[in-house]
Amino acid sequence: MISKLALATLLPALAAALPCVQFDASRNLYAFGGEQDVSLGASSAWSSPSPKPLSSEGRPPWNGNYSQCLLSQNSNAMYVLGADSSDASWSKQVTTGAPDVLQNSRSASILDHNTNVIYTVGPANMVSLDFGAVTNTAAGALAWQVVGTPQIASQNYRVTAAAASNHINYYGVPGTPAGSTNMFVVHYSYWQPQPAAYTAVGGRNFPAQSGQAVSLLTPNSTLPPYQNLFVPDDFSGAYIVTHYTADWSWNDTRSAPMAVNLINSTQALPAPTAQDKEASYACSDTDCVQIDTQGNIYYINAVGKDYTIAPGATWQKLDYTLKPYVAPTTSSGPNALSAPTGTGNAAASSGASQASATPAGNSGAQSTHRGGVLGAMLAVAALAIASIA
Ligand SMILES: *[C@@H]1O[C@H](CO)[C@@H](O)[C@H](O)[C@H]1NC(C)=O
Ligand SMILES: *[C@@H]1O[C@H](CO)[C@@H](O)[C@H](O)[C@H]1NC(C)=O
Ligand SMILES: *[C@@H]1O[C@H](CO)[C@@H](O)[C@H](O)[C@H]1NC(C)=O
Ligand SMILES: *[C@@H]1O[C@H](CO)[C@@H](O)[C@H](O)[C@H]1NC(C)=O
What we know:
mainly beta, signal, disordered C terminus, 5-stranded antiparallel beta sheet, binds 2-acetamido-2-deoxy-beta-D-glucopyranose, 6-stranded mixed beta sheet, 2 helices, Methylamine Dehydrogenase, Chain H, 5% helix, 28 strands
């Protein structure tokens, strides 16, 4: 079981929903955002899938261009950014102070494993939203906080972020060389001055490109992710990037759970079959899954428990396609969404002042009805009520 939380953001309605895949803390796979949401079970069941529909009660309309599904491993909940929200079992929550433009890609945000804080880089600021004390829905509003001016700017960068060892790797930042990322140290709220360099182990390194990136879970759930799947937009491959630093010392590798030669390394896997830049990805500790925008699902047994890639691993197509969902365009009203959108052109420049004014104020969010607020409403949904056998 997993509970779901949708963040309604200021994103214009789409004709067709962008689906996503995600695991629960027990490594069961789900696909969301199709005509229905389904549970696909553990990897042992994927070779002959028997999808189980989840309750659709109150699920978000999946009408964002950049929807992103983040697993909170500790609360076994999924947070959905950019899916808007509706009602009922997807319980919802008000947030305040979201910037006009919350994210510009499907890999813009990460959820820190240890603190349950979302970080995202927008045009003007890095902002965060703290779910540390939230198990289902918080009674009041949660405020987006300004973390500061990022070292990277998203104006000319389609943000491609994934967490590893409580740091955030930003892939494909303009000017940063291939095989390197710009790096934010979450628990010290600090940008490393120099890019972090990764050494290719037995294969190619990753190119200097944006794309999609997600974390792999760690076999020991109390530990944060140490590996990312990075799929660059040129589809030259799929890359397993391993980053490790001990919390207490940047150079102490004695407690590393992987072989020393894998610390700060890149291992190359074959490129995904579907070369769809808006596909979404999720990984357990051993398997990575892609769902493309047509609902086709592919999976690969990416790494073993020892963090090395499985020799000869290939992407397999799941014998089940999530039927695309066409979002109704009338219900929540184009006007509700177009008010924020109208300010969209100014968002890049007004974002800073608006966001920095936030922590104090509740501007906008409270007066809202669903779908109408500037990136300000969240919906929490308990998949717990869905009928999963
Ligand atoms: C969202 O996607 C639609 C369809 O591709 C496009 O027309 C629209 O401009 C996009 N909106 C934004 C804000 O990117
Ligand atoms: C791994 O990368 C991090 C971040 O750049 C760095 O602090 C650490 O020293 C590196 N570890 C090793 C063993 O090179
Ligand atoms: C998981 O990691 C924690 C923290 O390092 C450690 O205390 C625990 O023993 C580990 N559990 C297993 C099963 O290895
Ligand atoms: C880490 O660096 C410090 C200072 O440079 C040094 O004293 C220490 O021995 C190093 N530790 C390891 C495990 O290499």
